[in-house]
């Protein structure tokens, strides 16, 4: 693989730039792939959360559970409404969100899309190298006073 700089120069590059560039590129890639099947990334998160909740979930539970996902939090309310309008979710008599059969079908398609995206993005990257990269980033976050316990 050809890199942007030689090793000495690359070691002096700002991690903030490269983490921003990775975030921007990878988020656009994933969101584009999901958009191609008719769902946004936040809507995918909502469907996934509701599907894996034992008895459905309230709006507040879904929003709280997603607070740390790219700072989305309360911004999920319109996505929840759209999923209800599209009949991918319904409200049960107790006011809990439940996934419909159409929602399950779209969730399954989105899960396959996410798995294919991960395989593509991870091409040529052994799990050992990926693990090292994440551990280094977590140490940097901690060194800068951040918390990685909820990530």
Topology at a glance:
Elements: H1 7-11, H2 15-35, H3 41-51, H4 59-65, H5 77-85, E1 89-91, E2 97-99, H6 101-121, H7 127-143
Antiparallel strand pairs: 1-2
Helix pairs in contact: 2-6, 3-6
Structural class: mainly alpha
What is the radius of gyration computed over CA atoms, rounded to a whole number of angstroms?
Answer: 18 Å
The dominant shape is elongated
How many β-strand runs? 2
Low-confidence stretches: none
Question: How would you concisely characterize the structure shown here?
Answer:
The chain has 151 residues and is mainly α. It has helices spanning 7-11, 15-35, 41-51, 59-65, 77-85, 101-121, 127-143; strands spanning 89-91, 97-99.
Structure write-up:
The chain has 151 residues and is mainly alpha-helical. Helix content is 60%, strand content 4%. The chain contains 7 helices and 2 strands; from the N terminus they run αααααββαα. A two-stranded antiparallel ribbon has the order 1-2. Helix 2 packs across helix 6 and helix 3 (41-51) crosses helix 6 (101-121). It is elongated, with a radius of gyration of 18 Å.
């Amino acid at each position: 693989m050809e890199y942007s700089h030689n090793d000495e120069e690359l070691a002096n590059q700002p991690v903030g730039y490269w983490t921003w560039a990775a975030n921007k590129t990878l988020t656009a890639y994933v969101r584009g792939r999901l958009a191609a099947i008719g769902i946004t990334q936040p809507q995918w998160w909502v469907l996934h959360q509701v599907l894996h909740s034992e008895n459905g979930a309230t709006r507040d539970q879904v929003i709280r559970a997603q607070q740390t996902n790219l700072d989305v939090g309360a911004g999920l309310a319109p996505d929840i409404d759209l999923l209800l309008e599209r009949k991918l979710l319904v409200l049960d008599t107790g006011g809990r969100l439940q996934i419909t059969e159409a929602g399950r079908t779209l969730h399954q398609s989105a899960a396959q899309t996410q798995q294919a995206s991960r395989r593509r993005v991870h091409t040529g990257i052994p799990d050992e190298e990926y693990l090292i990269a994440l551990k280094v980033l977590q140490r940097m976050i901690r060194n800068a006073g951040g918390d990685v316990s909820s990530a």
